[in-house]
Predict the structure.
Amino acid sequence: MIICSLAIACLSSVSINPTCQNESKYDFNALQVKTHDIIAGKQWMVSYDQQQTTKKEIPLSLKPEPRSSEEWWTQRHAEKKAAIAATPKVDVLLLGDSITHSWEGNEAIWTEVLPDHSFFNLGFSGDRTEHVIWRLQDGAVDGLNPRVVMLMIGTNNTGHRMEAPADIAAGIEGVIKELKTRLPKSKILLLGIFPRGEADDAKDRLNNVAANKIIEGYDDGKHVYFLDIGPNFFSEQGKLTNGVDSDFLHLSADGYRIWAQSVKTKLDELLN
């Protein structure tokens, strides 16, 4: 019999798979670890490889983290949770960072291109995967029952600290697992991380491309559907100029129109 054990004291908030089997590289039960459960500044996950128990530090992209020092962020989080009670049935939940956040101000484009699909926006400017995981664990979607969640997250994991593509993908997988737990009836439209950077060989652009190659594999054809609309933001000359602002990251109004037009067919398919 294989005995699952840790060389450190057991944390009450971490549950270990008693069968020593895990579909993922990481033990996502450990995502509930909070600050007071950190031992010697470390958080640990358990993986089982060829019936061996090994330890590996959870990447930052997977560690639930609030942005408590930013008043606007905590206020927006509270306001969004309060708004759910007054929110009618929602077709599409938008989840992500500033690029998603800025659908606020571009609602008219959504209504024009996607008139039959209502939406609720949970985009937060500056968020990385770990912030989204924390928000979900803190009740961000409690009371919602969207038919589809459109998720686009990860570019700030690249831009803020140039995380390895595998770690970004792990963070996105963590978000997906939280969504499956909290919104089991919702389909997830997972968008590839949008392109960024002016040069073709810009490190941040290539990092996002590499992460996208991994998360494409999360498409199971039943609950998660991957769609990369990034190529639509490039001109015929291959420049990142179609609907993209001068920072080569955020979108202009034309960019939101491209986004809406690019997902329309898939959303119609998932919602009908």
Q: What stands out?
A: The mean pLDDT is 84. The first strand starts at residue 44 and ends at 49. The CA atoms of residues 142 and 182 lie 7 Å apart.
